[in-house]
Amino acid sequence: xxxxxxxxxxxxxxxxxxGPAVVFLHAGIADLRMWQRQLPDLAVDHRAVAYDLRGYGExxxxxxxxAHHDDLAALLDALGIDRAVLVGCSLGGMVAVDSxxxxxxxxxxxxxxxxxxxxxxxxxxxRELWRNTVGAAGEDLDAAAHAEVDLWVVxxxxxxxxxxxxxxxxxxxxxxxxxxxxxxxxxxxxxxLDPPAVGRLGEVxxxxxxxxxxxDVPEIHMIADRLxxxxxxxxxxxxxxxxxxxxxxxxxxxxxLLRDFLRSR
Length: 265
Fold this sequence. Notes:
Blueprint: E1 3-6, E2 9-16, E3 21-25, H1 38-42, E4 47-51, H2 68-79, E5 84-89, H3 91-102, E6 107-113, H4 124-133, H5 141-154, H6 165-180, H7 182-187, E7 208-211, H8 218-230, E8 235-236, H9 246-249, H10 251-263
Parallel strand pairs: 3-4, 3-5, 5-6, 6-7, 7-8
Antiparallel strand pairs: 1-2, 2-4
C-alpha cells in the first residue's frame, strides 16, 4: 500500500479517481479497509481518498505530539487537495467534525456515520456495558476482538447470525489489528481539539448528513441526536438492519445515501 509522509509520520493511503475530493475516515475498531465498497464506486466521478489514521492499520505512530485533525489537513496539502467532503465513521466522524472546526476552509461538507464527538462524556450505563463485555476479556486479544465486534458490529439488539459472516470476519481482523497496537496508542494519544466539539457544534458551517445503523448502541444514537440538533441544517438518515460499521454491513444502502447527499449539495 502506498505511504505518504505527513507531519513526521508515514500514513498508508489509497487515492483513485478524479473530480471533487471525498476523504474517508475509518472507525477506531477498523482501518481503511472498511471503505472497500465505497472507494471504487465514488472513484467513477470523484477523487476518492482513504487513509489509515496515525497508529492504525499500516500507518506509523512515532512518539511525537500530534492531532488527527492536523494530520488530515497536512494529508490534504500533500495530495494537493484544497477542500474535501469528509466521510467519517465513529472515531473518523469525530475527526471530521474536529477538522471542520480546526480547519474550516478545508472542509466542503460532512457525512457522519455512527460518529463520535470530542468532549462528549459517555454515560455510566455505556461504561458498564463496555466493562462487562470488552473489559471482561482482559488481556486475551482474540477474546477482546470477539467481544468488541459483538458490541459494535453485531450490536446489543442482535445476535451474530443477523450479520453476514464476511463482515464479521473482516471486522474482527481489523479490530484485532487495532487492539494489538492499543498499548502503543495509549502511550501516544492524540492531542484533543481545544475547546472540544461538543460545545461548538453551532460553529460547524458546512452541509452535514448524520446517519446511524438502527442496531448500533444507544449512546451512538444520543450523539447523533446532539449532532443533528447542534449543526445548523444537518439532516439525518438512519438505516435498519445495521450497526456501527454501516458502510461495511450495508454498502449499497450507505453508498446510495452518500451519493444522494453529494448530488444535493
